[in-house]
Structures are given as structure tokens and as C-alpha cells.
Amino acid sequence: MKIAVDAMGGDNAPQEIIKGVEQARDLYPDIEFLLFGDEKKVNEQIKNNDRIQVIATTEEIEMGEEPVRAIRKKKDSSIVRAANAVKEHDADAFFSAGNTGAVLAAGLFIVGRIKGIDRPGLTSILPVPNPALKQNNFVYLDTGANAESKERNLVQYAYLGKFYAQKVLGVSEPRIGLLNNGEEEDKGDRLHKDVWQSLNATEDLNFVGNIEAGGMLSGQADVIVTDGWTGNAALKATEGTARTMLSLIKHGIMDGGLRAKLGYLLLKPVFGKIAKVMGTSTYGGAVLLGLKSPVVKTHGASKADAVKNTISQIKTMIDSKVIEQTVEYFDTELTTENVDKQPEND
Amino acid sequence: MKIAVDAMGGDNAPQEIIKGVEQARDLYPDIEFLLFGDEKKVNEQIKNNDRIQVIATTEEIEMGEEPVRAIRKKKDSSIVRAANAVKEHDADAFFSAGNTGAVLAAGLFIVGRIKGIDRPGLTSILPVPNPALKQNNFVYLDTGANAESKERNLVQYAYLGKFYAQKVLGVSEPRIGLLNNGEEEDKGDRLHKDVWQSLNATEDLNFVGNIEAGGMLSGQADVIVTDGWTGNAALKATEGTARTMLSLIKHGIMDGGLRAKLGYLLLKPVFGKIAKVMGTSTYGGAVLLGLKSPVVKTHGASKADAVKNTISQIKTMIDSKVIEQTVEYFDTELTTENVDKQPEND
């Protein structure tokens, strides 16, 4: 398999991107990489060219640029060129740590949607940090690709999440939950009440009902479906609070004298485990699900380790044929819908 | 001043409610209490009847009951009777740890809205847990009184929050922020873009722009305004993550052997401080702002300490005349609006 990498995206590019790519290359003998970026800067960082091909680009999309305009104007940017390689079937997946909006736009307008999917959903794999449970993580979408959503978008997210949980995370019958402001059936605004009814009425979804934002990490579902607006707010609040708690502990230790510092040394393995469990890079990057090929974005601050983890995730997506299954499902669905609709056309 | 207390609401009622009331009574010589509840159960718990009058009620609204129906049917419940005492000016404020929906409904339909306020907002005082800043907390509304909001609701929340921050928290020029999915002016859905423009155009609001859910606790504003839907999701995610982190630490320590336990003993003061800073009861209860009198709800799990803190908060609301100021502002506003509208009617 071949992965098209935007070597210029992210705060630590190209250095950490290339370091991560080389680590992944050494781990997975079946992956080849196309590295898009400034030829000189990229070549300087590569230690070993084995299964790595550098493709020179002359433009860069900066973090603050307006995404859609940027991908239209900068045709020779690493993001646009990498996405085009996927479109032209020169690569099987697209990876970037750059401008999120531009990656989403390149995914949507260059790689393209699966037939039957109205809007792709940006998908994160989040932790279930309870050692008493067997479940380690869950699929969460949409985290903010779309600020305004319709009922059918959330129902499609349920399927996208289901197939991802089955194929990539290996959950045989994924439990699907709906993020809502209460657990009961009649909770939420019009949209969420309608989505509840749709998900509940759907035979091939194992719908387990509403899940409140306070219980997101508690392992009540394998997939939590949300509109991008709420999903974004709840995810950012979760990440922000985790950061705040870690920083409170750090401040408390620094201000707590020798006693606290000694305590910290003794608890260091515990804190290390927590930081790993709650860390953003442990479970890979954010996948724009609903596209014809894997388009995966890692955090702008990603280091080599996060890059390597994300490439593992992309490899599993390709190996497991999760996208093929999604394409097939929505294709059959569309055909069935057409058959169902025949009488209306008569 | 007189406070009407629902003695029967909450998981630890009436015991902890009455304990907290007695602690507050001993602290504040100018407060009298009306305790509404089961006469026998309440009297059993009271140690000293000084400035405490028990008013016998025969019904109770349970935690799971449908709120509006409950307050219509159970006229002799402690919630309805306490709210009525405020309406009839027999008491200056209403306090409960009971069914949140029923307290909101009693506030809205019995105590009543301030003229000019379309919808009251449920308001929490949340921590700014950064020891490097002087700011300890901020005002956050609406946390979920309304699942669907209009532009004017959020603008009214900005004023309600501003007056609360000024009068009750003593912030002279409260900075007002808007919870949104990005910091730039053009972020968000239609509603949030419109609210941004309104808040920014308003001379008497010190609007500091959008704040992302991930930065809520970082002290960027003294008041964060949000629609109840998003506000609820972000608040619950914040509380849930704080709980998860504390539980992870606890599990880590329990599974970490003697070394971890020793580390815990040394860091106990640090953890104690964190639990206090992040605790839900440290800053009092949730206030339904926009009503004619203080209506304040504490967490159902509240113990005496939380009850006492919430009564301090109610006392400050009454002493500071925050509601009188709000009434006056919206009264002038309505008069001015009428003057402005005159030409249209000609």
C-alpha cells in the first residue's frame, strides 16, 4: 500500500513527520510513502530513502489560511498534491498534520465522498479510561466537520462509526449511542428527538440510546454519534479539562515543597499511565469518514510517535477494507431505496 | 432577610439540608429561614429553632417526576409552597436541592420572570483553576434551562451575567465572552454569528469575543454566555472529565502498590486542594437568573457544607441588590425601546 504524506503540515514539520514516517516504514514492510513537500527541506531530514519517494512541491498552506480558498489557489501545495495523488489512485490514503480546514476541504473536494454519504464526519477515537472495563476506546463523530447537521447526516454517522468500530477496532456488534442532554427518549431538541427515533427504528444498528456529555468516557457505547456543533464543544471541553487537571497537579507539586516533589517521584508511573491513557495521540489521528479513501489528520503539535501511531491506524483502515464495506453498504442502500421508490414514480 | 428552603429536596434531605441551614443561621445573624417539608421529619433534625420556622407540607416531588406536571398537581409540595412564599413576599429567596426541572418550573411559573427577560438562564459559577491568575471563577450561563435559544436570549444572558459578576463577585468591568467553535469573529452557526455581532455592537458590554470550550476554565472572561444546549454539553463534559481524572488517579494509586500509596500520602494536600478547586459545591449553587427573586438549586448530592455555601451566595445576591439592578436596567431598556419604536407606530 502507498500513503501520501503532507510532509510540510504541523508545528514540527518536516522533521517530526519524517521521523515518524521512517519509524512506521521500519515497522511495516508493506507500506510505501510518497512525501510531498519542499524538496530540499524534506531530503535533509530523511535518513534512509527505502520505500520513501519525495515529490517536490513549491507552495505551503499556512495554519491560519482560509481553507477552501487556499486549496483552490495553491495547486502546488503539499496538501493539494497529496490529495490529488489519492484521487488519481497513485496512493491509497492521505495523511497530514497541517491546517485542519484545508485537509477537510481537500478530502471533500479532491478525494471525494462515498456515493450515498451527504457529508463526511470528522472522527476521533477517544479513551474509555476505566481499568475495570475491557473496552479501551470508542468512536466519536462528528467532532466538527459540519457546524449544522440534519437527521440523515447523524444516521449516516452511525453507520460510518459502526463499520469503523467493527473493522478497525474489532468490535463485533458495536453499541451505538447518541450524544444528548439527557438519557430519556424524549430529551433534546427536535433534531435529536428525530435522530433518536430513526436510530431506534433501524434494524441493523445496535442502538443503546442517549448518552450525556458527562458520561462520554464511561464506556456506555462503542460509537457515539453527535452533530458537529455539540460534538466539537464536548470534545474540546473534555480535552481542556484533562489539560487543566494535569496542569493543576503540576502546579500543586511545584508549589508543595519537598514533600510534594517526593510524592510526585513515587507516583510518576501512575501519572505517566494517565497521561498516556488521556493523551490525544495514543489512538491515532482524526479520520474524515465518508470519503473514498482514508484521509487522516493528526494534531498540529504531533511528534514522531503520534505520526507513527496514525500511520498504523491508516494501515489498519486499508487492511481491514473498512471503506470498501462502507461503499458497498451505501450502494446497496441506494439501490434498495430506488426500488422502494419505484411505485412513486409509476 | 428570609429564605424559603425546600427541606425535602436532594439525596441527603432533610438531614444535610437542615444541618447546612443551621450552620448558615449561626454564621449570619440577619437571616431567617422558612423550612418547608414533612413536619415530623424536619423537626426531628433541627437542633435549635432560633430563626427557623417549620411550615408543614404533605407532598413531595420526586427526582424523576415530569417537572411541569408535578408543580401543577402537587400544590402542597415543599417546592411549590416555598416558591409561593417568595411570590407572596413572605420570603426573599428560594433554595432547593431537589428535582432541577421542578425547581426551574416553580421559578418560572410561580416566582416569575423580570419584565423584559424572555427566558431566564440557569447560571453556574465555575472555577478558573490557575494559581498564577487573580481570577478565581467566572459566571457561565445558560447551562441548560433552554434547549433552544434565540439571539435576544443570549444577549439578555450577557446582561444577567454582567450584573451578577459585578454585584455578587465584585468584578468592576466584567469581560463578556461567547462560547463558540472558534475564536474568530466569523465562527459558528447563524445564531452564534448573529450573537457575536450584537454583543460586539453593544456599548455597555465589555465584549471580549469568542471562547472555545477547551479554554472555558482558563480565565479569558468573567462571564461566558452560551445557548443552553451547548452550555449543557460543555459543562457536563467538563465535570465528567474532572471526575474521570480523579478516578484514574485513585485507581492508579490503588493498583500501584506500596510505592503509589506512599506517594499519595505525600501528595494528599495537593489532591485535596485540587478537589476543592474543581468541586461543584465550592462556589455555591446554580442560580436561575432573570427571575424576580433569587431561585437557587444545589446539586442533589449536596452535603451541609454545600448548603451553607449556597446560602452565603443567596445572602450576597440579596445584600448586593443584583436583582433590583437587573430589574431597573431592563425597565429602562424597555422604555427606551418604546421611545425608539414610536416613529414606526406613527
From TrEMBL, chains A, B:
Broad enzyme group: transferase
Cellular compartments annotated: Cytoplasm
GO molecular function: phosphate:acyl-[acyl carrier protein] acyltransferase activity
Enzyme Commission identifier(s): 2.3.1.274
SUPFAM superfamilies linked to this entry: Isocitrate/Isopropylmalate dehydrogenase-like
Associated pathway: Lipid metabolism; phospholipid metabolism
GO biological processes: fatty acid biosynthetic process; phospholipid biosynthetic process
GO-annotated cellular components: cytoplasm
Major site of localization recorded for this protein: cytoplasm
Keywords (A to Z) from UniProt: Acyltransferase, Cytoplasm, Lipid biosynthesis, Lipid metabolism, Phospholipid biosynthesis, Phospholipid metabolism, Transferase
Catalytic activity: a fatty acyl-[ACP] + phosphate = an acyl phosphate + holo-[ACP]
Assembly mode: Homodimer. Probably interacts with PlsY.
Family: Belongs to the PlsX family.
Free-text function comment from the UniProt entry: Catalyzes the reversible formation of acyl-phosphate (acyl-PO(4)) from acyl-[acyl-carrier-protein] (acyl-ACP). This enzyme utilizes acyl-ACP as fatty acyl donor, but not acyl-CoA.
NCBIfam families: plsX (TIGR00182)
Protein name in UniProt: Phosphate acyltransferase
Encoding gene (name): plsX
